[in-house]
Amino acid sequence: MIKLENIRVSQGSFQLEDLNLEIPESAYAALMGRSGCGKTTVMEIICGLRPILSGQIYLGNLKVTLMKPAERGVGYVPQDRALFPTMRVRHQLAFSLQLRKQPVEIISDRVKELASWLEIEHLLDRMPEGLSGGEAQRVALGRAMACRPRVLCLDEPLSALDEALHEEMCALLQRIHKETKITILHVTHSKTEARRLANQLWLFKDGSVQKETG
Known about the structure:
Blueprint: E1 2-11, E2 14-23, E3 28-32, H1 39-47, E4 54-59, E5 62-63, E6 74-77, H2 89-99, H3 104-118, H4 133-145, E7 151-155, H5 163-180, E8 183-187, H6 191-197, E9 200-205, E10 208-211
Parallel strand pairs: 3-8, 3-9, 6-7, 7-8
Antiparallel strand pairs: 1-2, 1-4, 4-5, 9-10
Helix pairs in contact: 2-3, 2-4, 4-5
């Protein structure tokens, strides 16, 4: 579950007032709206990457408003994927587990599990440079999922992919949701994409987030 309650954010000329959003446990929600309306800001608020002036943030049954990003149980795939340029794929997948000082054996097993699940075993010793768009997106998803988060935030995860790769990644995201039951918030400009993947559609309109019905 994701719940934002009376959130207020201000940065320069950009402001959000009394933002409210509630996504049920295990839902796949899509968030749409014009460029600059605040979609990415919502994700950064959930992840703890954007400070808020007031309001409360709940993930699952926890109030996480004051928690650090690493404590929130959120996996985040930013629009540019943000893969570490000097780190091989296997180390990208292991990164968050190493930060949490997990035992080497557990890290190794999890990396193998993710690589098999995402069908990227053949990429483990590759550097990010030269990966295709679909390959890089799979690595970014694996890195976000490594710590078994309760919430997954995806910022335009299928943008800039050709038609074949777009279809492939849609199928992968559907499989991830079906098999993990994770709560997903997916930002997209494509209503077709949103309707295909999501069971809830939210729209930014007049400075607030509204659930689309019908």
